[in-house]
Specification:
This protein is about 35% helix and about 30% strand. It is of the alpha/beta class. The chain has a single domain, classed as Rossmann fold. The protein has a 6-stranded mixed sheet with strand order 6-7-8-3-9-10, with helices on both faces. The chain has a 4-stranded antiparallel sheet with strand order 2-1-4-5, covered by helices on one side. Helix 3 crosses helix 4, helix 3 runs parallel beside helix 6 and helix 4 packs across helix 6. Bound molecules: adenosine-5'-diphosphate and magnesium ion.
Length: about 230
């Protein structure tokens, strides 16, 4: 089984470490929810995995091979896709044009649309005219079209109502079921825990609840609250 592994990963920005000593294993076909309060270091950690920024200690491996020295483009070629926090579609392009940025060929585009039938009827609309939920659907479809092995999702729900975000959950599940390992950072904690296989909490730059079955956190409100406060 293919997996992405972090061992003792520390990420520093400016003055010092913002997140330290992170251990996690992301397996293909599974969803790992990474939750925690604002400023905990979640975005920085994801950025260090996709290569937006470097990490200052520890190792990142795919199937045992260290990718620590790989540039972002190499990691992307190796199948790491990253939906960055606050990054959206190109509003002036149509849905088709947005998807062709990663799908490349019409055949690949048709394949993606089979997994995202809702986008088919909007395919020649300018993306700016789509609802917030539909725009995020395009973001997911565009990432899926790059045929990732591992998909890092950073706060897709920003600016969306919970009911709108809920419509994206089955799509994220479907992406995982197709064999993608999904690392899901999400402010709607319970929605994330509801679809995740595993979950972990980071708080103030530390892992305050280590990776384990998601339902352990989903079923124990007090444990979840303690973890948010730093474990
Ligand atoms: N570009 C940056 N330069 C310096 N410090 C940053 C930068 N981005 C985030 N930080 C700091 O790193 C810490 C972790 O932030 P972040 O990774 O965004 O956490 P989260 O995604 O969990 O809210 C915060 O203290 C934040 O102020
Ligand atoms: Mg963040």
């Amino acid at each position: 089984m293919s997996e992405l592994q972090l061992n003792g990963v520390t990420v520093s920005r400016g003055a010092g470490p913002v997140v330290s000593d992170v251990e996690l294993v992301l397996r293909r076909g599974e969803i790992l929810a990474l939750v925690g309060p604002n400023g905990a270091g979640k975005t920085s950690l994801l950025e260090s995995v996709s290569g937006v920024i470097g990490h200052s200690a520890g190792d990142i491996r795919i199937d045992g091979e260290s990718i620590a020295k790989w540039k972002r483009v190499q990691r992307s070629r190796a199948g790491i896709a990253h939906i960055e926090q606050g990054r959206a579609i190109f509003p002036s392009l149509t849905v088709r044009e947005n998807l062709l940025l990663t799908a490349r060929t019409d055949a690949a585009l048709q394949e993606v649309l089979q997994s995202f039938p809702e986008l088919e009827k909007r395919i020649d609309n300018q993306s700016a005219l789509l609802s917030g939920g539909e725009q995020q659907m395009v973001v997911l479809a565009r990432a899926f079209a790059s045929k990732p092995r591992f998909l890092l999702i950073d706060e897709m729900s920003l600016g969306l109502a919970p009911v709108v975000f809920m419509r994206l959950l089955p799509v994220i599940q479907q992406i995982a079921e197709s064999g993608v390992g999904v690392l899901l950072v999400e402010q709607f904690t319970h929605l994330a825990l509801g679809i995740a296989t595993d979950a972990m909490v980071v708080s103030s730059g530390r892992v305050s609840h280590p990776q384990g079955p998601a339902r352990v956190l989903a079923d124990d409100e007090a444990l979840l609250r303690r973890s948010y406060l730093g474990g």
